[in-house]
């Protein structure tokens, strides 16, 4: 058991225009490299408190239990589900993409009887559909994906919580891709539990999952008759670890990752949420104009499109892998492949957080023209750039 | 929902002599700050392959499934248990400290019928005790802690796997605190599944959990009749994400944390395992000499002491919190409090990875003298330093 020692890592500088991770600000990278302190050091407790306070602003909530789970977005999903579901509970999950499907799988593993409310990939649910599913299946828990990372569709959230609460259930929301890039209003929307990821519109590397639990969710957690099946994600213990008054050791938090998130959140608040959302929209409009001018179609109806994740159909006759590979190797630009049933059918072009800027939009359109041209795709040279530039006038 | 933006993080430089995290090398901090790439980027796949190859050397195993779980050590523990335990399985867990107790809790949440084989904190198990428990309780899974982080006791591992295998069971081993600091010989010992943490003797910040699964463990995983209860930690999917030939998306790995682990492992292999283990022993001997000269007693019998985690009794009349607080605030040195029933009774003085060096041993003994002197503890001034220096002659 020996092996040659590999050379020192020398990561290339990419432009990350896939479904996440997005580009990381150098200030965040520098924060990651600050000296590690103990996880019970008073200095780190201060960092944890500040991370919580800033996450509350980003989530638009006053929920005391607003933390960064020590795992990636999928760990946050699992934390929400396993803390709120007890074996035998009924759960309704909206499945209109890979991540709704994942939530169903997670809930079934937690012992829930799950009714999957289905919609084709790229579409969203109406309030009537949700109301019907809730009345029919009488769930204790409802799970909805706000921003489907696999399809680029945005679920309107207004009105859903009332339906769920009127039926005595609690509402879990996936906002992995939306948080920090468009409004996520936990309290206004009445969402009881939500989770996100750090590597999307917060532009921090992956490794933590922002999570918030409101009063109804906590009440449900407190009323459990069985232990949460995951020790690592058991919020009845994790909440004491993050408690601002008297901390109780649970696990060892990823110290340096929390430094990174702290700095990423500072950048978000410095910019201001409204300015940040407007920036994401504007760059989306420019990208949309450019792609449309090249004859490329979006996979999601206009009114449901996520500005930070643009799913478009791969034009007929164009080689999916060849284009993505040329973009990466010749231009250092990463875009995402389609996921699940969309594999080979769509590209997912992310404009998340730091990535969302005019320079990247123009750069990408120029590089895409090059790649499409190599594939003999018929288009008007320069039309994409020109249309995007019109938006930036 | 708004909050003042806190000032930029400005982490103090500590000497981390607690039970982990340990000091992080500046090379590892610099690696954390390399540009984030996509988690399916060919460059990151290369990093993953190299991390796996280096982890195999450190674990002394040829197991193909040797990876870094995307969570801290407790996530690695949960990964081992939930993948190998199905509801109703019998498990024997050695409980001689907090982490054995944690494994019992995790196993019960996974539906196991657990027999806790108990020993007072600080002691270890004999082969006869283990054999008796296995014969009596006929478990499918046995869990043993190699290095009890809560007590500083080291469980001899030779001979245990034969007992477990003869009974048709598989052996899980916790080596969170030992890996990289003293021999951990997965293949020689016949351990079927093991997990560790990055923030102990590997001297990488917390956030990942090195894990290895051998053929018997994989066979058991493949033969499961029910899904693993955790989606996030389901190794039947995670193994394909880490597969060297054709990767399948599962979750998004913590990219920059893996850069850090990559560099930490390079440092371990550059030093060489045997040299590294000898260094941990020598600094332990020096610390032991110094503490003994001051009249401080170890909490673990000499033959079972972990060189990287020195649990000592707090001398009578000395204020636990006052000493730890003075060490931290006046000298920037962190040591650990006692955990569980040892709270207020012991200190845990870590000499792990980068922290384990003569300079830190001498520095700590000098600072401890200062703190004990402030508490009017009777001792011969300078005796600790002199005794430690004798070891370094």
Strand and helix map with partners:
Two copies of one chain form a homodimer.
Chain A: E1 15-17, H1 26-32, H2 42-59, E2 65-69, H3 73-84, E3 90-95, H4 98-109, E4 113-118, H5 127-137, E5 141-145, E6 147-148, E7 153-154, H6 160-166, E8 170-174, H7 186-189, E9 193-195, E10 209-213, H8 215-222, H9 235-241, H10 255-271, H11 273-293, E11 309-313, H12 320-331, E12 333-337, E13 346-350, H13 358-374, H14 383-391
Parallel strand pairs in A: 1-12, 3-4, 3-5, 5-8, 8-9
Antiparallel strand pairs in A: 2-10, 6-7, 9-10, 11-13, 12-13
Question: Mind explaining what this structure looks like?
Answer:
The structure is a homodimer of 393-residue chains. By secondary structure, chain A is of the alpha/beta class. The first copy, chain A, has two domains: 26-269, Aspartate Aminotransferase, domain 2 (3-Layer(aba) Sandwich), CATH 3.40.640; 272-391, Aspartate Aminotransferase, domain 1 (Alpha-Beta Complex). Chain A is 41% helix and 15% strand. Chain A has a seven-stranded mixed sheet, sandwiched between helices. In chain A, strands 1-12-13-11 form a four-stranded mixed sheet. In chain A, strand 3, helix 4 (98-109) and strand 4 form a beta-alpha-beta unit. In chain A, helix 2 packs across helix 10 (255-271) and helix 11 runs parallel beside helix 13. The radius of gyration of chain A is 21 Å and the shape is globular. The model of chain A has no long low-confidence stretch (mean pLDDT 97). At the A-B interface, helix 1, helix 2, helix 3, helix 4 and helix 10 of A face helix 1, helix 2, helix 3, helix 4 and helix 10 of B.
């Amino acid at each position: 058991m020996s092996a040659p020692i590999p050379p020192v890592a020398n990561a290339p500088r990419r432009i990350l225009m896939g479904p996440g991770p997005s580009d990381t600000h150098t200030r965040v990278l520098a924060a990651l490299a600050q000296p590690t302190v103990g996880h019970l050091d008073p200095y780190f407790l201060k960092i944890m408190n500040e991370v919580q306070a800033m996450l509350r602003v980003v989530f638009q909530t006053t929920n005391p239990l607003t933390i960064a789970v020590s795992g990636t977005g999928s760990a946050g999903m699992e934390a929400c589900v396993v803390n709120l579901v007890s074996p035998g509970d009924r759960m309704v999950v909206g499945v209109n993409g890979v991540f709704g499907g994942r939530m169903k799988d997670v809930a079934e593993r937690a012992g829930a009887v799950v009714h999957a409310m289905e919609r084709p990939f790229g579409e969203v649910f109406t309030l009537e559909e949700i109301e019907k599913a809730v009345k029919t299946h009488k769930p204790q828990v409802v799970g909805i994906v706000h921003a489907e990372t696999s399809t680029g569709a945005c679920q309107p959230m207004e009105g859903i919580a009332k339906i769920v609460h009127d039926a005595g259930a609690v509402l879990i929301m996936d906002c992995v891709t939306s948080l920090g890039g468009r409004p996520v209003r936990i309290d206004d929307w009445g969402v009881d539990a939500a989770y996100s990821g750090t590597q999307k519109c917060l532009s921090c590397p992956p490794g933590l999952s922002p999570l918030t639990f409101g009063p109804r969710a906590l009440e449900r957690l407190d009323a459990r008759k069985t232990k949460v099946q995951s020790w690592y994600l058991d919020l009845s213990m994790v909440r004491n670890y993050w408690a601002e008054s008297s901390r109780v050791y649970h696990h060892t938090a990823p110290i340096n990752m929390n430094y990174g998130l702290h700095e990423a959140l500072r950048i978000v608040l410095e910019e201001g949420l409204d300015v940040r959302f407007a920036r994401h929209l504007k760059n989306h409009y420019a990208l949309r104009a450019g792609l449309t001018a090249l004859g490329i179609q979006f996979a999601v109806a206009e009114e449901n499109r996520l500005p930070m994740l643009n799913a478009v159909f791969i034009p007929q006759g164009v080689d999916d892998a060849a284009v993505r590979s040329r973009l990466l190797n010749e231009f250092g630009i990463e875009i995402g492949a389609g996921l699940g049933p969309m594999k080979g059918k769509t590209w997912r072009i992310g404009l998340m957080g730091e990535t969302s800027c005019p320079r990247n939009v123009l750069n990408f359109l120029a590089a895409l023209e090059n790649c499409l041209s190599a594939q003999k795709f018929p288009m008007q040279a320069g039309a994409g750039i020109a249309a995007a530039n019109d938006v930036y006038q």
